[in-house]
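can u do me a favor
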């Protein structure tokens, strides 16, 4: 109970956005909203009324999804005495817009930026309190893609009760966003996790990839969670046996063939 109270206190004191962070979020949301609504401006000719409505709804989807993703990272980082700050990747934003034009909106490139971490020295007793470390940074960043997967599940559940193209697009966006952000491409979350722990990265990558597939093919919730967990553990074990163990010269190496 005391840890929860302490975490809530940290959120109240440190969960805020700097002016530069707010500018980066606004640009990111507008750019990604344009990308995911690119095909909704009309098939043969541009329909301004329909286009602006879909663009506005896309911005709402991206903003809500991005804030949940960001809150998960900030919340996870605060538990270990770090404060995260979003930094926009200008090249990623430009590339996303170019690819939207080049593919007529069929391909979404969703790596708009990443996070940097600030050390909260007074709040790190008991967890690597002597400074920043890759494992803590990677652990925090993994929370973002996982939060996007769970948000996609919520949108899918809502869409099953009230069929809506907006809810469907929100689900697809969060699944796609989770997949892209878990990739080991700097400055995406996955690049931080990979440098923090290869073993945890394999576990997280497998969980996000399998759960994304199961969400899209409309597998029931319990099977999404159970199947993703089992697949992630299996991938983690295979990776350890066939690569990590050999790389470290461990005692469980397979005999040479």
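np, heres the sequence
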């Amino acid at each position: 109970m005391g840890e929860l109270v302490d975490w809530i206190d940290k959120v109240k004191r440190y969960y805020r956005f700097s002016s530069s962070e707010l500018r980066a979020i606004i640009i990111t949301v507008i750019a990604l909203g344009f990308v995911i609504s690119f095909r909704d401006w009309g098939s043969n000719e541009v329909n301004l009324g329909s286009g602006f409505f879909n663009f506005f709804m896309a911005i709402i989807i991206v903003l809500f999804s991005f804030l949940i993703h960001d809150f998960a990272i900030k919340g996870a980082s605060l538990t270990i005495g770090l404060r995260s700050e979003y930094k926009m990747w200008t090249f990623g934003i430009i590339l996303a817009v170019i690819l939207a034009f080049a593919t007529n909106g069929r391909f979404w490139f969703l790596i708009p930026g990443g996070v940097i971490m600030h050390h909260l020295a007074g709040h790190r007793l008991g967890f690597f309190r002597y400074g920043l470390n890759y494992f803590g940074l990677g652990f925090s960043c993994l929370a973002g893609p996982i939060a996007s997967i769970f948000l996609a599940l919520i949108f899918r559940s809502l869409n099953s009760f009230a069929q809506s193209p907006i809810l469907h697009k929100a689900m697809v966006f969060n699944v796609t966003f989770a997949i892209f952000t878990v990739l080991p491409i700097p400055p995406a979350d996955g690049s931080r996790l990979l440098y923090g722990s290869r073993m945890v990265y394999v576990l997280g990558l497998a969980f996000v990839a399998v759960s994304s597939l199961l969400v899209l093919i409309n597998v029931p919730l319990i099977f999404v969670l159970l199947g993703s967990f089992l697949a992630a553990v299996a991938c983690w074990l295979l990776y350890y046996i066939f690569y990590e163990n050999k790389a470290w010269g461990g005692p469980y190496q397979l005999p040479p063939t």
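Strands lie at 82-88, 113-119. hope that helps!!
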